[in-house]
Amino acid sequence: MFAPRPKWSRSVVALVALGALALSTSALPLSAARADTTTTTVAPTTTTTLAPTTVNVVGYSVVGPAFKALETAFQATPVGHNVAFTNSFGASDTETSNVINGQAADIVNLSYPSNVTTLVGHGKVPGNWKNQELTYGHVNAALTGKRQQTTYPTRGIVTDSVVVFVVRKGNPLGIKGWSDIIKSGAQIVTPNPLTSGSAKWNLLAGYASQIAQGRSAHKAQNYLKSLIAHTVAQPTSGSASLAAFLAGTGNVLLAYEDDALAAVAAGDPVQIVTPPQTLLIENPLALTTTGVTNPGATAFYRYLFSAAGQGILASLGYRSVLKSVWSQTRGSFPAFKKPTDLVTVTQLNTKGWPGVDPEFFASQVVFSRGTTTYPSKGIVTYLEQFAGSQS
Amino acid sequence: MRRSFKGLAVTYLSLVVLIPFAALVTKAFAGGPAAFFGAVTQRESMDALGLTLLCALVGSAVNAVAGLATAWVLVRDRFVGQGLLNAVIDLPFALPTVVAGVTLYTLYGPSSPFHVNVTGTWIGVTVAIMFVTLPFTVRAVQPVLESLTFNAEAAASTLGASSAHVFRTVTLPVLAPALLTGTGLAFARAIGEYGSVVFISNNLPYRSQVASSYIYSLTTSGQTRSAGAVSVALLVIALVVLTACGAVSRRLTHGRR
């Protein structure tokens, strides 16, 4: 008896062993990557005589770390002692469809208002969510005992931010403004607009930057086409985009200012360039139909809009919606020369998100009469076919 | 006993496999056949399907060869660490695919220690597919190779056949059906793969987006019928390939008798 021993067997072993080694040693870089979707449970720190409740929080991908800090701080307050949390964070559109499909949610903090509107359409969030603050928030004198000096009503917006550029340390391409990121050699990373709210803010910011500079809608569309053509990666979420950028893809990342500040604070070898004109990001927060009857959820909602909650958010890089907190913290954020340099969505379309969403992101592209290159609906959907074409 | 097994199998298959598939097909055709074909033949969809098929074909073909070699080494060779290697083979199944994707991105991406950057290319997607589907071919071939006695090979060898000749004419025909089954499974798994490929592909629509990611983006943007249609297209392709593999495999088995 004998066993045939082909000569190549040893090299195969070596190859397989090398593969196994590569697998084991590569565990290290994983810590730098941000998971697409994370679900964790935060246990209450102490127990009091208050009835224990669990609050299910669902949020867009990059807000996860902020909620961890907010929940811990809330649990350290007398009212929050007995409140436990479950968390689920991921790409905003994905989280929205998860909630529609039955995922437990008492508080939703999504990337842009259309996601909440979608939840209203499916009966998951009360239709009056933009006024919830008046019932459950810090402005309700019956709940807080005093009326606060605020910018209320914020109409359901819990945090503001702006779209910024994240570049490699030293800014090797010398990127200053929007025209620099469509020059040859620029490689943009921005998430996929079909799955990510962050992607929508980013693309709208590029468009808005042109409008802010007095250019026509057609010129702004041409600009958007160049921007998409210079895009080399469209990961599924804002967090995944940052991970891809940190792994070395592209040389400019479009991101939320807060997420960019978090990356810099984490010591990542990047720096932030705030363009001279950009878009104001407004992230909505709402109590769901189960949340409005959950005492823990309404208490946490009130906390999020309070000076304490807003102070934590401001320290994490969000531009506060509370006047008192904003006036104390605005010095740490780059200012804009003119008010018109910071464009709002309602300036792009008077209907706001209900108007902007179909205009830019409708799945069916519609052209107005007399043109086949400038859609009146689904602008981004149409331009996506040029993604990566000038990389 | 036989009847109760049959009842269990039918009930279980219905609940776990058939009903979900039926629901998916219903969803896919909810807008009528024209909407179904429209969704599948849209350029973005065809580009995603084409890329996915290419990568799945190449990946499973490479794994047919590499998996056979690995199974051979595990069964016929004796070396230090063999038990460990045998255990490691299945790890791609255990590793969350997203982790696999990120790991491959760091190894074969822009900051690769080997200076190899395959991200955003079909090669990158294929590498990810090779990683997650290797166990299929190895584990399909291994038991057949183990049960194989050396009598026929020894006889051929004493009759003067070279070892390559023995392998080609005696060993390979016995292994072929199992190898084909394993490769078919790897292919089917590959066309549906999401987690490990979505990151390394860079996810550019029309260019580097795989079918599973395209379907996912349709789902999250509310286009569930189109998502269902493209999914059904993937399922049909898988069904055709698996059926063909099964038919060829059966023919090979009977041909040997």
How is this structure best described in words?
The complex is a heterodimer of chains A (391) and B (257). By secondary structure, chain A is α/β, with parallel strands linked by helices. In chain A, 38% of the residues lie in helices and 18% in strands. Chain A is built from 16 helices and 14 strands. In chain A, strands 1, 2, 3, 4, 5, 6, 7, 8, 9, 10, 11 and 12 form a twelve-stranded mixed sheet that branches. In chain A, α2 links the parallel β2 and β3. Chain B has one domain: Orthogonal Bundle (MetI-like fold), CATH 1.10.3720. Chain B has twelve helices and no strands. The longest helix of chain B is centred in the N-terminal third of the chain and has 34 residues. Chain B is globular. The model of chain B has no long low-confidence stretch (mean pLDDT 93). Classes of the chains: A alpha/beta (391), B mainly alpha (257). Chains A and B meet through α1, α3, β7 and α9 of A and α3, α6, α8, α9 and α11 of B.
Q: Which terms would index this structure?
A:
heterodimer, A: 391 residues, alpha/beta, twelve-stranded mixed sheet, two-stranded antiparallel ribbon, 18% strand, disordered N terminus, B: 257 residues, globular
Q: Please tell me how large the radius of gyration of chain B is.
A: 21 Å
What's the order of the H and E elements of chain A?
HEEHEHEHHHEEHHEHEHEEHHEHEHHEEH
Query: For the residues shown, what is the average pLDDT of chain A?
Result: 85
As residue ranges, the low-confidence spans of chain B are: none
Structural class of chain A: alpha/beta
Which series of helices and strands of chain B comes N to C?
HHHHHHHHHHHH
Quick one: CATH superfamily of chain B?
MetI-like
Q: Distance between the terminal alpha carbons of chain A, to the nearest Å?
A: 61 Å
